[in-house]
Design a protein that fits this description.
The protein is of the alpha/beta class. Helices cover 54% and strands 7% of the residues. It has 33 helices and 13 strands. The strands form four sheets. The protein has a six-stranded mixed sheet with strand order 3-5-6-8-4-10, with helices on both faces. It has a three-stranded antiparallel sheet with strand order 11-13-12. A two-stranded antiparallel ribbon has the order 1-2. The longest helix has 21 residues.
């Protein structure tokens, strides 16, 4: 297959490699400059316009799932794909903080070993809604009683702290004290000694000890510089045994443990946690204590069946978000929370998570992890390896912003895939990806919540303007990439940014690409504008109309391409714009003395726009508009016939790439051996129309355009070439032969038409220069002989 950008085979093609390798960001200045100049020269040589059909195929194949054509994606007002985005409208009652917000007031030097007692009321409240696998939880409690100290390993926000507190309660601790997490593991024993001394000083005289004391240390900071080792726990165990105490330490998946056997924490499901917390909330609302259980069971079942709740449970929500959702449900049951605010809770929780990812505090994510999140948002559902590769490029750009005078230091090796995806609340799976060489199976990475990518990009662009320079440089580099997937995702990301802030996205990205002398940049601009229009960005048609009438020819080209992509939404208006532009092209060529030839690239682009419209879901409206206007003047006639013939050729060419399925009959049902021609889309349309009374006008209209093309000296050669392709396709598919046999007699209005068609069928070369195929002789029998009456259109 020819390269979709150049029309020629790419040099040294690789399934996942760019045709022009990116410059090395860490190369010395002179070497980097030479690399960039060499790449510019190569890119200029390869830079040619890609046809509109291929552009639309790339959008269909490579745009994110939430932005693909026909997906119903869109932002509406404050909506993200149908969900309320933001809390700017209306009133939100209660807390909307989803955790991880900690305010620390530190006056004077810290105590060497500070701790605090967890209130008994807090433990009681947690016990009311705690849920876990009873058998596994009892086994952990037995182990804690025996060993005195237990290390629990689990992911963040999976209920590790609550589980630790409940384990201490189950083990028999009469009180629980919380220890600071930022002390080195080697100081654990000293911490407990200090706690015991404090407790003895607090007791008056010979008062007996209150009973076993539990200690909890949440999220111990154990890394490679200070790992948690077995001797640390042995020392702690001795202290606990001497004073009848228990300790539970919780650690994350990345904590460094040496010769320590942690207990793995398996959290309950989100539905179980929501049900348990909701039941606890409803008990407080029960009107009669005698019927409390009956009320809570009935009301819980009713609330859990609400669409807002089933939608919440269908999303990838954390346990802390389920725990926060239960009070909102209880307020809704009591009539204190409107239904629309309940519906908005799920998206509000997602927005809170995104804001938390970008916070800069003691628990902030490293910059490299933030770069990965942004790259994953841009390449959501795309190959993981590509997402990780380009996230490191973004990391280098962010470092340039953060440390402009320091070299970009990008680690070669980083976090394990599983840990990275767990942090991003994403998943990795195998999926089929469309490439220029056909579909291939790859490992792809995607957010588990399909709204996350859109929300993250919007939050990044509007709430963190300091990140804009790095993001803009990164997107410009993606627009230069030789891989269609990368360029399409650059356009899709820009579309989301344009919806969030149209003036900034236009000034920093789209207008620069649109005014570029390079077609690759212009195609990214057109794709970005088309996708921005699909998701509801304002004023895109107005921008395109202005560029269509302007004097800047690159921007005029972009406007035409974008009109082709979004034209099916407004076919009549798009055709009016195309006719206006083609007339402007003819007028500009006549102003010269002598008249200058037409700009072939612009004329081809206009014809490609008509082609896309004729092969879209609005094809009948488009056909009617073309039939009503193509005879008005020469520019309109040339535009109509050129676009019509391009559409007729689509599907008849030998297949060398993946089927895009963008038009009626695009699916391939024929044999694949040797890559024969497929089924011509317009001929298939004619076959469908000719048999129905309601669509007979379509068949007559297609025939009328064919006769006009065959009888026009400027278009007859192209028309005969398309017919030759149709005949070759008929040699491989019987349904194509039958449709062509029905069409050919209708194309004969004059004896000259019969002579022209008969000459084509007798003399046309077969595939690879072979003699005419047998199907040509069979089709010749349906063409009326010269001198015989010819059928007239009804």
């Amino acid at each position: 297959m020819s390269s979709p950008d150049t029309g020629a085979p790419p040099a040294n093609p690789a399934p996942n490699g760019p045709s022009v390798p990116p410059a090395d960001p860490n190369a010395p200045p002179q070497q980097g400059q030479a690399q960039a100049e060499e790449q510019d020269e190569t890119a200029e040589e390869q830079d040619r316009p890609q046809d509109a059909w291929a552009s639309r195929r790339e959008l269909a194949d490579h745009a994110p799932p939430a932005l693909r054509i026909g997906s119903g994606a869109g932002f509406g007002g404050a909506l993200v794909t149908g969900d309320q985005h933001g809390v700017s409208g209306g009133r939100v009652a209660g807390d909307v903080i989803m955790g991880s917000k900690t305010e620390i007031w530190q006056l004077g030097p810290p105590a060497p070993h500070a701790s605090g007692e967890v209130p008994a009321a807090t433990l009681e409240r947690l016990a009311e809604s705690f849920v876990a696998d009873e058998e596994a939880f009892a086994a952990l409690a037995d182990r804690l009683r025996e060993e005195r100290v237990l290390v629990v390993r689990g992911a963040a926000f999976t209920g590790r702290r609550t589980a630790a507190l409940m384990l201490l309660r189950r083990a028999g601790a009469t009180s629980v004290r919380s220890l600071l997490r930022d002390r080195p593991p080697a100081e654990l024993a000293a911490q407990l000694d200090a706690e015991q001394q404090r407790a003895e000083q607090a007791r008056a005289g010979d008062a007996p000890a209150p009973g076993p004391v539990g200690y909890v240390l949440c999220d111990l900071m154990a890394d490679r510089t200070r790992p948690l080792r077995e001797p640390h726990l042995l020392a702690v165990r001795d202290r606990l045994a001497a004073h009848d105490g228990y300790l539970v330490v919780t650690v994350g998946p990345t904590a460094v443990l040496e010769e320590v056997d942690p207990a793995g924490w398996q959290p309950p499901s989100v539905a179980e946690v929501l049900t348990a917390h909701l039941t606890a909330q409803l008990r407080a609302l029960a009107p009669d204590p005698a019927t409390c259980e009956e009320y809570t069971g009935r009301e819980s079942a009713r609330l859990l069946a609400l669409p807002a709740v089933t939608g919440f449970l269908a999303r990838d929500h954390q346990l802390r978000e389920a725990a926060a959702f239960a009070p909102a449900l209880a307020r809704h049951a009591a009539g204190r929370l409107p239904a629309d605010e309940l519906d908005a809770f799920s998206l509000g929780a997602l927005e809170s998570q995104v804001r938390e990812w970008f916070e800069e505090d003691e628990a902030a994510l490293p910059l490299r992890d933030k770069a990965f999140l942004i790259s994953l948002a841009a390449f959501d559902g795309g190959p993981y390896a590509l997402t990780a590769e380009l996230s490191d490029r973004l990391y280098a750009e962010l470092l340039r912003t953060q440390r402009p005078h320091a070299p970009a230091d990008v680690p070669v090796f980083g976090t394990h895939i599983g840990k990275r995806l767990q942090l991003a609340r994403a998943e990795r799976r195998q999926a089929e990806e469309a490439t220029e060489w056909g579909p291939v199976r790859q490992w792809v990475a995607a957010f588990r919540d399909d709204r996350a990518a859109l929300v993250l990009l919007r939050e990044l662009w509007t709430a963190h303007p300091s990140a804009r320079p790095a993001l803009v440089r990164w997107l410009r580099a993606l627009a230069e990439d030789g891989r269609p997937l990368v360029r399409t995702r650059a356009a899709a990301t820009t579309a989301v940014l344009a919806h969030a802030d149209l003036p900034s996205a236009m000034a920093l990205l789209v207008e620069e690409w649109a005014a570029s002398p390079r077609y690759r940049h212009r195609m990214v601009a057109a794709s970005a504008l088309a996708l921005a229009h699909f998701v509801g960005a304002p004023n895109v048609p107005r921008i395109l109309d202005g560029w269509s009438q302007g004097e800047d020819r690159p921007m005029r080209w972009v406007a035409i391409r974008t009109h082709a992509l979004i034209g099916p939404e407004r076919p009549a208006g798009t055709l009016r714009v195309l006719r206006t532009v083609v007339r402007k092209e003819y007028e500009e060529s006549r102003r010269e003395d002598p008249p200058a030839p037409l700009d072939e690239v612009m004329v081809e682009e206009l014809a490609g726009a008509v082609e896309l419209l004729l092969l879209s879901e609005a094809r009948e409206t488009v056909l009617g508009e073309l039939l009503a206007s193509y005879e008005v003047d020469r520019p309109a006639r040339d535009l109509t016939l050129a676009g019509f013939l391009r559409a007729c050729g689509r599907g008849a060419e030998p297949r060398t790439g993946p089927e895009c399925g963008l038009g009626p009959g695009a699916e391939d049902e024929g044999p694949d051996e040797g890559h024969p021609p497929g089924r011509p889309l317009v001929l298939d349309w004619y076959r469908e129309a000719v048999g129905g009374p309601a669509t007979a006008w379509v068949a007559h209209g297609l025939t009328r355009l064919w006769r006009a093309a065959l009888g026009d000296s400027l278009h007859s050669r192209d028309a005969l070439e398309v017919l030759r392709l149709w005949v070759l396709a008929a040699g491989h598919r019987q349904d194509v032969e039958w449709a062509l046999a029905a069409l050919l007699p209708a194309l004969v209005a004059e004896p000259e038409d019969a002579l022209r068609l008969a000459h084509l069928l007798r003399t046309m070369p077969g595939e690879d220069g072979a003699p005419p195929p047998p199907v040509a002789a069979r089709l010749l029998t349906v063409v009326p002989a010269a001198g015989h009456p010819v059928p007239q259109p009804r």
